[in-house]
Amino acid sequence: MATTAATRSGGGYVQRSGPSGLYEILDLILDKGLVIDVFVRVSLVGIELLTIDARIVIASVDTYLRFAEAVNRLDLGTAEGEGLPELVEDVTSDGAQSKTKGILEGAKESLFGSGDDEDEDEDSGNSGGSGSSSSRRSSSGRSSRSGQSSRSRSRSGSGSGSRSGSASRGRQS
Amino acid sequence: MPEYVYAIVEPSNRPGEHPGIAGARLRLVKDGDVAALVSPLHDMEPQLGRDELLVHASVLEAALTRGTVLPMRFGTVMEDGDAVRARLLRANARSLKQELDRLKGKVELRIRAVYDQESLLREIVRGDGEIARLRKELKGAPSDATYYDQIRLGELVAEAIERRREMDAHELVDALSPVASAVDVAQAPHERVALNASFLVERKRVPEFDAKLEHIAKEQAARLRVKYTGPLPPHSFVELHEVS
Questions:
Q1: ipTM above 0.85, yes or no
Q2: Given an 8 Å threshold on Cβ–Cβ distance, is B71 in contact with A29?
Q3: How far apart are CA B185 and CA B141, in angstroms?
Q4: Rounded CA gap, B61 and B69, in Å?
Q5: Angle, helix B147-176 to helix B206-219, in steps of 10 degrees
Q6: What is the mean pLDDT of residues B123-152?
Q7: What angle do CA B49, B226, B177 make, to 5 degrees?
């Protein structure tokens, strides 16, 4: 399966991918665009497996404990005037860095049910991550929305339907 | 024969040899000033999955190089060419033409800015007295004795991340907006995403947008990774107004 993310050459600080970097535009193709009327059918099979939409910051004890652990293990370093004894201790005591790396990732994985998420994507600089996206899980309301999409949309009229996605997608922070 | 509908385009936007879904040949259904980019399907209820999604995206990509493209939502199928002409094009003729005019020469640019995890946490510990104090207190204490304090610490960190994201998202949008005609901020998929947003930008201003973004990305390189996808057809900005 060719994912066609064409990497554009650029100044180097911005990571660019072409229009077919599937992961990046999945939500656009699935949720945005024109929806015309009741005669238009939308039949999606298995697409909900592709959708990724979840709020990771969930107010739960588990999440908080993970955050706490992450900052506790954080290596604050000495480069920016952090000469305090207890901080130096951080560096030497528990080899914290590699552990810290995993903490928030862990939270994410448990929600997505898989380590195959966009960070692979970002790190490798291509859209290869989407190559195995069938293993992705949808863990939020999006899946139910996709579910609804599977048959005729009975939108009355041709009006606001085309933006229905964005209305609920404002930042809910 | 059922038709899969990819997009509304100008009647002059002739598809090339680029294959459509299931390898079918793309064609235009025209009516007056508007046209629909379609390809035939064998089945009114086709199985549309990942492969079709990719084809859909690449068909739009190719059409965008030839003119203005109003993308249909993925999975739009109509029973035949006549239905496309009558119920899609004619019934919405004025509205579709208006959108083609409004979005002419404009493209969508998708930006995602993701925090470097360690930098983010470091910033937060350094920037918040209470978090730093609590962290110091909890250092070395037996974890079962400090259970509730650990939760409190985590909660403070979560809140601080949220505040920082909001601030950064705001700054990024403010910095890029002057170059854009419109902005659509989408929900961030996880907590390390500072901003997930689309900008509607005139093609001729894309280099300006690129330069601005590059500048920001350079400035923020230690803490944010900026990912840029586009130019895309204006998925996030196309809308139809009620026709009577």
A1: no
A2: yes
A3: 42
A4: 9
A5: 150
A6: 87
A7: 95
Q: Count of H helices and E strands in chain A?
A: 7, 2
Kindly state the tokens that stand for A113: 């049910």
Q: What is the mean pLDDT of residues A19-33?
A: 74
Model pTM score = 0.72
B98 or A49, greater pLDDT: B98
Rounded-to-integer distance, Cα A95 and Cα A76, Å: 12
Q: Residues of B with CB below 8 A from A57's CB?
A: 158, 161-162, 191
Q: Does A155 touch chain B (CB under 8 A)?
A: no
Q: Among A17, A129, A146, A33, which residue's Cα sits nearest to residue B112?
A: A17
Count the residues in chain A.
173
**Residue in this structure with the two tokens 């448990």, named with its chain if needed:** A110
Interface contact B47-A43, CB threshold 8 A: yes
Residues B19-45, mean pLDDT to the nearest whole number: 94
Closest CA to B53 of A117, A15, A163, A130: A130
Cα of B242 to nearest chain A Cα, Å:
5
Instruction: Output the CA torsion B183→B184→B187→B192 (10° steps).
Output: -20
Q: pLDDT digits over B76-129, tens only?
A: 888 899 999 998 999 999 999 999 999 999 999 999 999 998 899 999 999 999
